[in-house]
Amino acid sequence: MQNFEYYVRTKIIFGKDTESKAGGEAAQYAQRILLHHSGGHAVKSGLIDRVKTSLKNAGVEWVELDGVQPNPRLSLVYKGIDIVKKEKLGFILAVGGGSVIDSAKAISVGAVNEGDVWDFFERKKTVPQSMPIGAVVTIPAAGSESSNSCVITDERGPWKRGINYECIRPAFAILNPELSYSLPPYQTACGIADMMAHIMERYFTREPHVELTDELCEGALRAIIRNARAIFSGGEKNYDARAEIMWAGALAHNNLLGTGRIGDWGSHQIGHEVSALFDTTHGAVLSILFPAWIQYNIKEDTPRLARFAEKVWGVDGAFYDPEQAAKEGVFRMKHFFRSIGLPVSFAEAKIDAAKIPEMAKRAVKFGPVGNYRKLDEKDIAAIYRIAAE
Amino acid sequence: MQNFEYYVRTKIIFGKDTESKAGGEAAQYAQRILLHHSGGHAVKSGLIDRVKTSLKNAGVEWVELDGVQPNPRLSLVYKGIDIVKKEKLGFILAVGGGSVIDSAKAISVGAVNEGDVWDFFERKKTVPQSMPIGAVVTIPAAGSESSNSCVITDERGPWKRGINYECIRPAFAILNPELSYSLPPYQTACGIADMMAHIMERYFTREPHVELTDELCEGALRAIIRNARAIFSGGEKNYDARAEIMWAGALAHNNLLGTGRIGDWGSHQIGHEVSALFDTTHGAVLSILFPAWIQYNIKEDTPRLARFAEKVWGVDGAFYDPEQAAKEGVFRMKHFFRSIGLPVSFAEAKIDAAKIPEMAKRAVKFGPVGNYRKLDEKDIAAIYRIAAE
Known about the structure:
The structure is a homodimer.
Chain A lengths: L3 E3 L4 E4 L7 H6 L4 E6 L3 H4 L2 H11 L3 E5 L8 H14 L3 E6 L1 H15 L5 H4 L11 E5 L11 E6 L4 E6 L7 E4 L9 H19 L7 H22 L6 H13 L14 H13 L3 H16 L4 H12 L8 H18 L16 H8 L13 H12 L1
Parallel strand pairs in A: 2-9, 3-4, 3-5, 5-6, 6-9
Antiparallel strand pairs in A: 7-8
Helix pairs in contact in A: 4-5, 7-8, 7-9, 7-11, 8-9, 8-12, 10-11, 10-14, 11-13, 11-15, 12-13, 14-15
């Protein structure tokens, strides 16, 4: 087991009607804040109005910035930074999914540091500080509500780049599972793939003797799979299933499940290039690429992938034919993703296989990706080709 | 699933040689601190000297108070409060196991609040604030290093009473698994029973639909059981096994595993009366009473106890004869505790069964105990009698 520090100071406020606490929590940080959201469903559903009432009740004033899109754009981040500086705001409240929260995180970095915020994403310099932010979560998916990471797309490239800093972890996160009832099924499914990927990226490690976190990862994946099936078999408004998924989404990415281990993250890296070129939803890219990544690794580390097949997907027979068991794990995983409406191949998501060489080249801009297995341009192209089969 | 708040702001610093960071962490809170420990093994092993070097290097001065015993005493807490007030100290660093950390927590409450600190434990008033504390953990057991609870014994009774407040959660906890190499086997075993009990108290809930935390609880218990066996089969200095146990001990009691559910805590309550009268180590009381408590509940909630037997103890056949499976779970649990040198009956721990009526009466001083099943005086006596068999 590796030495580690684990310090998640995000206060989780979980359950029914908890959005009414947003104002009181925000008031602990500032009297004037940026209210950041997409302007879409959160407005139509009345959530933004409920949050505003809560802010009013707590004596908090706000300036509103909506328009966040999936794969949140750098241009809106720049706009947010200008507003925060001009209006002298002291806190950012994100109401939405991972895109809104990530956009808020990027604004929080740009608002209190000199220079171009994109330089931090291009790794030209490191982030010394940020403005505190809070989140009211509407989409269980990215886990951004209690994570230290943030991914932004510079549409001029397009480039999709991520940063990881302790200071950008939200001060509080409000999670009301009821807010996810009205998500379109495809978005629910993409969120499920995303949180599963966050766990699997940590699960696949070369670090031996991390049994406790192995058990926690496998248990969380089983709980997600079972409750996803409950939601997709007529349980759209099954509070408990939605609640399990929402709590799992936060735990999947606050690094509890990564303590003492070095995760892989190759699938995320090579997925970013697909999203950047085709604007494919992050979760759908992962439902395509993670099974392909696993298949590419079966011969490389058969015992680990056989264990994964048995413990997470219930495959028997791993003792006698581990390679076949591992393959069956991939088969079941793809079947599960399909069963909740996700693509498992490039063709299904209208991703043009002709772009494989270009995407593979872009993926290694900063060198090989992945820690469980270092992937060079050739490896990445091979994984893309499996996904294109 | 119940609504919940989850806010564990303890910074975990985990791994080899991490005690060297104690000074730097403490310096963030005060320049003059109370250094609190038992005066026993932590001194002989050289740990206290290493911690002092770290404090010196960080420019932190300390006043020392040693002498903490298992089932930490109120008299020493009073002494600590006097010292902190007289010397105007601003932080307490506990170096030791749960007893030392709990003693430090009680001092931290008494140091900044008027009146007799025992009144808080007797529930005459609530704790409004406390002084920040930190911990260097030597015994993986109580999980006090990142918990909000504190148990103290007033030797004038004797009464053993606990409090739970967010403010007493340590600001940081340093966990170096190597520090547990030299623990006597009995103490290692008692710690293992204690952390397992912390998980089981949360696991046994009447709250339906808490699958994610069910999975996390079961996985953590399996990891503890496997690594306990590794330590007790010649792995006293197996770093990885010690590390799994130490991290599990902290996670067992920071309430991650209790989110969304209402735990039982009856076994802890009825165990406190045994410790109070016989000064039996907390972990040994639990290895005796938890199997007895489960046995008492088999007819009350057979499906849950059959599941526990299957998922945690690997018992087959729960579908066909769940009651028998549940019984076999208790059998395996007792065998496991015996295999690591713990008592599983009153006789083995020299607890006089003649005191059962008195202990049962004392246990209900504040009314029935337990949430999974409310235990009155008659129930408690029945569980004690099972333990006396």
